[in-house]
Amino acid sequence: MAREIKLGSTLVGDGHPTYLVGEIGINHNGDIEVAKSLIKAAKECGLNAVKFQKRTPELCIPPEQKDQMRDTPWGYISYLEYRRNVEFGLDEYQEIDEYCRHIGIDWFASTWDEPSVEFLERYDPICYKVASASLTDRHLLEKLVESEKPIILSTGMSSMEQIRQAVGLLDQDNLIIMHATSAYPCPPHELNLRMIHTLRNEFSCPIGYSGHEVGLVTSVVAVSMGANMVERHITLDRAMWGTDQAASVEPVGVRRLVKDIRVTEMALGNGIKTVYDDEFPVMHKLRRKMSFD
User: Fold this and answer.
1) Where are the domains of the chain?
2) 3-state SS, one letter per residue, for 40-85
3) Residues with Cβ within 8 Å of residue 169, at least 6 apart in sequence
């Protein structure tokens, strides 16, 4: 069975270019113009898709956190009010959908609750993402399965048994599993990139990598280890206000990451030893006329 699925018009899996996702998340800080600038930058840098996050704040925020106060660009307000301010609604998602179609880039979102799935269904996204925090939410997983769309499952802060239980509720023929560590930013010693091999050995679906580290090289290494998808948070400026900005990549870094991943894909080859055309002149010049015969 081929380790591949289709997202929109693009095949993702072994034998295909790494599918590259720019996680906008809430780095737009509730501003649709910032979101559109990030979408434009992602397209210009060569990413395949951008991803947002959709929540119903009243459902997703634990009761004890709703009234906690914090400093924000909107003043000293409750955590619930802050989450409402960074949450896009119908008008914004309509604009996102139209803009992505106009410039030719895919988009989707991670859904944090069942009403958010129903909200996004009207836009017919190419897939749904399960955030690491939602991996153990059985009702959400079952709701996503009902959509019959491909599902991307992120596995941060989860045990192997929890991952197995979640995958058991899903269809591996319509699934991508993302290795992730849910620390922002994540220190190198906690990235554990060999988990890509572990997941590939246990599951038959494409395996990806969702990185929250500072720097680019480890995301490129993930591709060399078999990641079929790479997702990184993107931002216009890492100094912008917001909890995810420090673990994000600015456009100049995104462009470099895309280039390095595409070069790595070419360099990996097919594993079959070949004497290449560029080697023949060197061989004729340096190798003595001897034979094992």
Assistant:
1) 4-286
2) HHHHHHCCCEEEEEECCHHHHCCHHHHCCEEEECCEEEEHHHHHHH
3) 138, 141, 142, 145
User: Cα(51)–Cα(100) distance, rounded to whole angstroms?
Assistant: 11
pLDDT tens digits, residue range 234-282? 999 999 999 899 899 999 999 999 999 999 999 999 999 999 999 999 9
Please give the Cα distance from 219 to 263 (Å, whole number). 13
Q: Is the pTM of this model over 0.85?
A: yes
Nearest to 207 by CA among 194, 191, 217: 194
Domain made up of 4-286: CATH architecture: Alpha-Beta Barrel (3.20)
Helix (H, G, I), strand (E, B) or coil at 204: coil
Q: Are the beta carbons of 151 and 170 closer than 8 angstroms? A: yes
**Angle at which helices 32-45 and 251-268 pack, to 10 degrees?**
30
The rounded distance, in Å, linking the Cα atoms of 142 and 148 is 10
Count the alpha carbons within 13 Å of 287 in the hemisphere toward its beta carbon: 9
| Per-residue pLDDT reduced to its tens digit, 78-127 | 999 999 999 999 999 999 999 999 999 999 999 999 999 999 999 999 99
- Angle among Cα 35, 214, 211 to the nearest 5 degrees reads 70
CA atoms within 13 A on the CB side of 98: 7
Q: Is the peptide bond prior to 281 cis by the omega test (within 30 degrees of 0)? A: no
Handedness of CA 106, 11, 109, 113 (dihedral sign): positive
